[in-house]
Amino acid sequence: MLADRLQSWGDPEARRRHGRVRRWTLDEFPMPARLFEEVVEHLYREDRFARGTLTLDGVPAAASAIDCPVLAVVDPDSRVVPRGSAVPPVPAFARPESLVLEHSGDRGVALRHVAALVGPALHAGLWPRILNWIGDRAGQAAPPTARRKPGSATA
Known about the structure:
- By secondary structure, the chain is mostly helical.
- The protein has a domain at 67-137.
- It is 45% helix and 9% strand.
- The chain has 8 helices and 4 strands; from the N terminus they run H-H-H-H-E-E-E-H-H-E-H-H.
- The strands form 2 sheets. It has a two-stranded antiparallel sheet. It has a two-stranded parallel sheet with strand order 3-4.
- It is globular, with a radius of gyration of 19 Å.
């Protein structure tokens, strides 16, 4: 954060953006203990989604079950969300319609892994590509199969 603060010093807007992101990082959200424990244990330590052992409300949720085009936005230098975590080796990424877009942060953002959301350079360059990719696929979705009813483990 210090390096970004120094890089932002000469640009008033980047300095304000840096301050807003820094303040956001200091905001506290009272996450329930059980949710925190499950996220850490199931998603990080046990990597259940990638391994195919995660269930949500009794329904299996596995990366290998993704059968639609996937768009991933990654920072190749991120230590928080490494490319290997953002782009897992699942069949969906082998589809020709799938796309991985890379970004390298933006001045004034302070946290590179949120730069795609709040960085103006990324809004100008990255977001049009994201929206075009989505727009090119609008209306191409396969008809829904038997979907699970919310709150139940069956369709």
